[in-house]
Amino acid sequence: AAAGSGDGLGPGIGGAGGGAGGGRSGAGIGGNAVGVSGAAAVGLRSTSPLCSVRRWERSVSPSREPRAAFAREPRTSLEGRNGAQSDDGVGIRSQRERCAMKLLLPQALAGAIIGRGGTVIGELQRSCQVKLFVSQALELHPRTQCRVLLARAETEEALNEVLGRIVDQLACLADEEPSESIFWEGMLKLSVLMPRAVVTAFIGRGGINIRQLCKDSGAEVKVREPDATAAGAADPAFVQKIDIRGEVAGLMRVLREVNHYVQAVNGEAWFVNWAASPMPRAAASDAAA
Fold it and tell me: Quick one: three-class SS letters along the chain?
């Protein structure tokens, strides 16, 4: 698979040869991906309130619109305490919203997180004290079929809380409408975007950090090779795609670690622009083309 591909298991960090990090896939540092570890089958029935909202929506509207209808949703966020809006519809980043994370959402998951009329995303923002922005239907991350979710909050802990709710929603969706974009070989799938500036530290010298993370979480973690030919590839804010597969608890363990590394650089000058919108204008135009 090409580097940065959507749902496949393509090249990662390193060259040819065997690697550490065992598990079913058997690949690790120096193989086709960074730090792979096995995981058990997932118990997917979720008791999340978000699942209840979605089940209620179906019960009162059996002929609901197909998920493709969610593709017409604009960037979505409800006005919060700092509800100023920029001219492209994305809220201006408040000084207090110093923390940010970006996730990739297959269309089905994007629709589930937005909810009918924005009900689910509104509940997430109110209960977790975060702001959430989802890229428009044709604004897909390059070489994927995924929209980008930007989450902004005052604290790292608030982001961890909303990440947990999103993983609950992912499990609920995989339970009710499983597809390869969110569920593969008995494991949930989710991808995040990490600034290039922190990827090396996240992996660790010789892959030691990511191997330990896989061991502790039971999840599979793969860091995709960046596209060296892409515009801005040398910029510290240039993103690399991190693919995660595992159980709910394993996904959350990895997401918390990613969040911690990303917030370690949220004081850097380039971070303000990185956290200003789900994806750069240039990337959105390329994806639409």
Answer: CCCCCCCCCCCECCCCCCCCCCCCCCCCCCCCCCCCCCCCCCCCCCCCHHHHHHHHHHHHCCCCCCHHHHHHCCCCCCCCCCCCECCCCCECCCCCCCEEEEEEEEHHHHHHHHCHHHHHHHHHHHHHCEEEEECCCCCECCCCCEEEEEEEECCHHHHHHHHHHHHHHHHHHHHHCCCCCCEECCEEEEEEEEEHHHHHHHHCHHHHHHHHHHHHHCCEEEEECCCCCCCCCCCCCCEEEEEEEECHHHHHHHHHHHHHHHHCCCCCHHHHHHCCCCCCHHHHHHHHC
